[in-house]
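Hello K.,

You asked for the raw outputs rather than the summary table, so here they are, unedited. I folded two proteins back to back in the same session to keep the settings identical. This is the first:
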Amino acid sequence: MDKTITYIVAILAIVSLAVATYGFITFQANVNDLEQSNSELESSISDLEGTLTNIEGQLDVIQGQIGEYQTTIEEQQEELIGYQKVTLVDFMGNVVTLTAPPERIVSLAPSNTEMLFAVGAGDKVVGVTDFCNYPNNFAEWVEAGNMTSIGNYYGPSVEPIIALEPDLVLASTGSLDAAANLKSLGYNVLVLEARTIDGVLQDILLVGRATGKHVEAGVLVSNIRARIDAIANQAAAATTTPKVYHEVWNDPLMSAGPETFISELITLAGGTNIFNDATTSWPTVSSEAIIEKNPDVMVFPDMYMGVQNFYQTVEAVENRPGWDLISAVQNDAIYEINADIISRSGPRLADALEALAKMIHPEIFGQP
């Protein structure tokens, strides 16, 4: 009996020891798991802290950008406030006050179109004439639906202009009737028609102010002046001043007279315009007068009023009655020039001057 009890007690002790051992092992495993979980948790916390640090850095960048945007907005608001005070006077003496930068501009002259694009306002142009061809092929734009043509340069109809809902129209003396009609209907219209180089540069500045591109216009005018001055300074060193005839039209014969930018360009290029003593800016002249004045250089634009080579050919000019006596004919000093650069009161007058300088003084500027 005593032995039996002893055996039972021993067995219970062994079982208790086994259970305790198992419990300890399980507890230790749980502790290890908890330590591993704690380590992983600490790693996750570290990762989150790194992420938070990155987010804080990004927030700082965003806040900095917001500050820059706010500064830009304030500057633009200040510019807009300043713009609202802009009052402009055009070629006809008409006063136009614009209260906001125009978003839809219609140009009624190729020279106006060139100025708009040159000052950086081309993206606001929604309408041009059939004669506008620079700085882009607008005929292709019109065909593709990216631009609208209002039709003719001279005497355009107002209906296609009104249909474009412009907030600014740049007209010329070729569209005075349309300009008057549009003004009577309440549209903002500026008439531009410079006759001199300074007038052209002033018109560029005017277009810059009208479109909110006054800075760009100022830079452009400075560049044009610098190019003109460079040619004029070189030409001033020439020892001769060749006599120059510029033909504007052949039936009847017409030339460029005083108070025209063409005559100014001839002078700046080191030449003498043979009709600078005319009584009108665009005089009708006679063949006899040209022969008598005996120009050393003759210049012919390659187009006028849409007519390509209205004078036909250089050979046809040479064969005009009595013209074989002219020095320019005898010395092969008859030149063709791009009509667009010489006849438009726009930003390419410096190109025209550079071309004329080569025709008048090739010994200084090289052959044209």
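The second followed immediately with the same parameters:
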Amino acid sequence: MVKIGLISDTHNYLHPGIKEFFKDRDEIWHCGDMGTFAIADELAMICPVRGVYGNIDGQDVRNHFTQYNLFDCEKFRVLMTHIGGYPGKYDKEALNRIVKYKPGIFVCGHSHILKVMYDEKFQLMHINPGAAGKYGIHKVITFIRFTVDGDQLKDFEIGEYDRNPPIVKPK
């Protein structure tokens, strides 16, 4: 059993709630657009990090992470990338890799839209944790935690925070 924290599109910002939300995780998977490698270092203080670089990431992130990450977790093959699309509308290169490697879990970011959906055609779970940073179109900060237990995915939970909380002025 492996407890996963899934995050993307931090754009060089880590919400304070992430540390608490991911505190009991075994691994954190970051689906790109970290902003700087310092984000990976901060997450690694919680637990080990797997990741990929995104389109806004500079050389410091690209020196440590690849565009695609293919690995096994319990009984699942996992394919991770930043720009991946979603069932029925996959990015061309992501689709080629899905067909070639037949992952059971496909995780990506980029859209800033949280999606968890099963793809019947390719028999895989597609997961996009939305965006955890302050930059982009999203109204709320989101990230996900779940458990991979043998051939089961379970205990999905969404961390959701207001991107721009109201400022409370003292009276």
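The two ends are 50 Å apart (CA to CA).

Happy to rerun anything if the numbers look odd on your end.

Regards,
P.
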